[in-house]
Amino acid sequence: MNKTSASVLRAFSRGGLSNGSLNTAKATSVAATTPAISSNRLFSSVRIDTYTAPPVNTNTSTNTNTAPPAVNRLPNNDRERNAIYADEESRTMANVSASVRHDWNKDEIAQIYNLPFHELMYRSSTVHRMYWNAAEVQQCTLLSIKTGGCTEDCSYCSQSTRHKTFVKPEPTMKVKEVLEAAKRAKDAGSTRFCMGAAWRELGNKKNAFNHILEMVRGVNGMGLEVCCTLGMLNAEQAKQLKEAGLSAYNHNLDTSPEHYPKVITTRTYEDRLDTIANVRDAGISVCCGGILGLGEKDTDRVGLLHVLATLPEHPESVPINALVSVDGTPLGDDEDIDAVDAFDMARMIATARIVMPRTMVRLSAGRLSFSDAEQFMMFNAGANSIFNGDKLLTTSNPEFEADQNLFLKLGFVGKPAHKGPMISPHAEEGGVIITKIENGMQSQQYA
Length: 447
Known about the structure:
The protein is built from 14 helices and 16 strands. It is α/β, with parallel strands linked by helices. Strands 5, 6, 7, 8, 9, 10, 11, 12, 13 and 14 form a ten-stranded parallel β-sheet that branches. It has a four-stranded antiparallel β-sheet with strand order 4-3-15-16, with helices on one face. It has a two-stranded antiparallel sheet with strand order 1-2. The protein is globular. Mean pLDDT is 82; it is low at 1-64 and 390-396.
């Protein structure tokens, strides 16, 4: 007797397995001597499930600068946000766990940083979605209110008087000019306005400081969040900036403590940490990150993240910059330093996202040198803040228009000013397991 082998076709539809498929499935229990099933009968039992996808919205007039109105948001102040989750030990989703910790050691961070790239990206994007709404990205604008003439010797900076670059010293901008620039930034869609001055420190610049306080009050009065980067600050200056309405203060550490002396000699690492402490103690949100491409090793990148992740409070935001080399600077003239690529940036962003899950990670200098696809990889790694095109404050602004088109392409919305981030939809819909400590005991809930 000839043996006959029968193949079974299964058809799945929105309604489940079709009746014909169920009947066919029963054939698996029939002896091999059963006559072969006709191919016509077999295919007639298959239900073809058709689906017509809705058209992609190509209406470029959609406003991408504000999130949809009916959304749940966390507090805008990062300390208030963190206080809500003070009893939270960890979050888990899709077999990936994360927690806000301040006791990381370098080996732990190095293990994350050195994961195979595909695994690192999976973990970081999962962590990102546990804590944030991945569709929301903050848009910031940076204006140099005092360009050139800095006495520091930062080997990457075109504004140092010690380097012969294209940058020429300029006087501090007038208050009126700055406020006009802030208004243009707001009209163009930015929600955080950052003012930078090429100074080592504010020191005794009383007149200039009074003008800056006026600028902060004016920009804050427009409904924008205000950020400054003015060099080193003492405790009293930080207090006055807070009273004027400053939202955040940027003071980067640049690199690891070990590599830092090879980049800068006129200011110590401890000087930078002291300013960060003064800002934090004044109740101002800390913006602190670093630069890739300073001739550092992977161990230095891990070292920078270790310092940031073990601060008493994680920074509100961590900018990750790719060096934009400038001729005339020591690093710009050093041909032995490898260029930073998109994978370097994504690896750094992903590791930062995992070790500081509640921190906003900002894709900063060098962003415009990367393609849309490369930028998407960085967003997927955990970046949720950008600086807009560097020609935002000029009449012609193709970079800013490109950012708006990128937001439309990727389905992103901008974070509104003075409003907290949207709650993670995965947490809202019960897709995240949250472990809490209550009265010394662990408890779990689905959020």
